[in-house]
Amino acid sequence: MAGQSAAQSAEQSAGQRTGSTPMVVVEDVRRSFGSGERTVHALRGVSFRAHRGQLTALRGRSGSGKTTLLNLVGGLDSPTSGRIEIDGTDLSALDEDGRLALRRDRIGFVFQSFGLLPILTAAENVGVPMRLRRVAPAEREERVRTLLALVGLAGHADQRPGELSGGQQQRVAIARALANEPALIIADEPTGQLDSETGRSVMELLRAVVRSEGVTALVATHDPQLMELADDVVELKDGRIIDPS
Hints:
The protein is α/β, with parallel strands linked by helices and 245 residues long. The protein contains 7 helices and 10 strands. The strands form 2 sheets. A 6-stranded mixed β-sheet has the order 6-7-8-3-9-10. A 4-stranded antiparallel β-sheet has the order 2-1-4-5, covered by helices on one side. A hairpin with a 2-residue loop joins strand 4 and strand 5. Pfam families: ABC_tran. Keywords: ATP-binding, Nucleotide-binding, Transport. GO terms for molecular function: ATP binding.
């Protein structure tokens, strides 16, 4: 109960700081693939909200629709029907250039497979999104140093991914996701390739980042042990949200 009270207090404080509008609004979203008898209904009328300054976990078995939902929220795909709003922007109102700008400027992505460029150092990997935005070198280097320190890797800036552990690589990926100061972080099974202890430390880092950076995080996971670290949990089964009651 005490944990719930703390979470409620955090939500109220976040609401006072940023207003009551949720960061993510998903309304009756459906996504189907194929046609006729071969149609696959990946999402079947999903609705939920992710609040600003909180970590929302998407829970469900493989095939429940978690990744499909994250791709839609991140603007990587479009729903068959329904509405998705990110930070007050209706995704259906954006053309492809608008979606690209949204992903570049407002959303940070963290993947299960880390997604780091093997020939670049940790610092260079973190700096890639800022290079794409043509951030001035001095500003970029300062931001990289700050982010590597934030994720506990200040002493590993010059190491390449192959010289880092899985947990360290995922920390680099989190720092990279924060490079352009996004409003929303989307993480798809970020602990999936890590042992349980390292996975928990990465999830704790994500929660700490949400608190310190004031971002919103939407994290897909199938690990029930990580649910206690989330402010809110949305459970999916067969493309539908399960009512926790």
